[in-house]
Design a protein that fits this description.
Blueprint: E1 14-20, E2 25-30, E3 35-38, E4 55-57, E5 63-65, E6 94-100, H1 107-120, H2 130-138, E7 143-150, E8 155-161, E9 166-172, E10 205-215, E11 218-232, H3 240-267, H4 280-284
Parallel strand pairs: 5-11
Antiparallel strand pairs: 1-2, 2-3, 4-6, 6-9, 7-8, 7-10, 10-11
Length: 295
């Protein structure tokens, strides 16, 4: 049985195919001198195992960890302009290829689809009640959750993504969550001199990942755990044997960083938070309240 591979490939004449056996990549050359690469086609060998399952995690190949080079000293092409062509590199990280049977939709999306169907059939479409609209507004959008753990079971990272039908991919960047406070109104990082808000790198070793779904706040495990290995790209200055110590020390520094930020934010609390304090210094300078010291 034939299955169509899309993935952004337009309907054009392909004149040559080549297989990169080591990385399991399929390279296509078009009549118009264009090149397309399907990274790691090995999951296609396990498509039959998805039959009759709601979700499936494909085997994960060994992942090489490294820090991507910035030859210009800043992100991307910098200020060289659009006259210079530079394609984006694949994301650095462990690639999780997974299958999900159907799209997860919210109550609002389901209602709108049902209304469109009734409208198409020429039937009456009734306006929803106020209560149902409030339920739709409060509903948490369903999503897929990937939980990455150490081999011993300690949780390293949780990644969320939309639940889309078919075979999809998600990349974990080998990092812990950011140690900076959560920003509920994030803005795009348009400053090329400013680094991305990322956490520290993990140590090389064996990890596992599980796939779950979240509907109305209820998390249900669907597939996994699937083991994979994180390796350090050869040629690094620091031996891989010491990277575990570096990651452990970095975790301690990140934890203290969180404590410092939390303490600083508490010091910025308004005067009203210290009205019950009897200390005269606290009333005069609420930022330096000694209540935390036990007075």
């Amino acid at each position: 049985m034939w299955k169509q591979l899309r993935g952004g490939l337009p309907t054009i004449a392909i004149r040559d195919l080549a297989i990169q056996k080591r990385e399991h990549d399929l390279v296509l050359a078009s009549f118009g001198r264009g090149f397309y690469v399907l990274d790691d086609y090995s999951p296609l060998r396990f498509l039959k195992q998805t039959e009759g399952k709601e979700a499936f995690l494909f085997p994960i190949k060994a992942s090489w960890m490294y820090v991507e080079n910035s030859p210009l000293g800043i992100r991307g092409k910098g200020f060289l302009g659009e006259s210079l062509y530079a394609a984006e590199n694949p994301k650095v990280g462990a690639t999780f290829t997974y299958f999900y049977k159907e799209d997860l939709k919210t109550r609002k999306e389901k209602r709108q689809e049902e209304q469109d169907k009734l409208n198409k059939d020429g039937k009456d479409v009734f306006y929803p009640t106020y209560e149902s609209l409030k339920e739709e507004e409060k509903e948490e959008a369903p999503y897929l959750l990937f939980t990455i753990r150490k081999e011993k079971g300690d949780i390293i990272r949780k990644l969320k993504t939309a639940a889309k039908k078919g075979v999809n991919r998600l990349v974990w960047d080998f990092r812990y969550p950011s140690a900076n406070p959560i920003n509920i109104n994030p803005s795009p990082n348009d400053n090329p001199f400013q680094s991305e808000d990322v956490g520290q790198l993990v140590a090389p070793g064996v990890y596992t990942v599980t796939l779950s779904k979240s509907i109305d706040g209820v998390v249900t495990e669907l597939a996994g755990p699937e083991k994979f290995e994180v390796k350090v790209l050869p040629g690094t200055t620091l031996p891989a044997a010491r990277l575990g110590r570096v990651a452990t020390q970095g975790g301690r520094v990140a934890k203290k960083h969180c404590w410092c930020i939390g303490y600083f934010e508490r010091c910025q609390q308004p005067r009203q938070a210290h009205e019950g304090c009897r200390n005269e210094r606290c009333k005069a300078q609420p930022r330096f309240c000694e209540r935390d010291s036990g007075h």
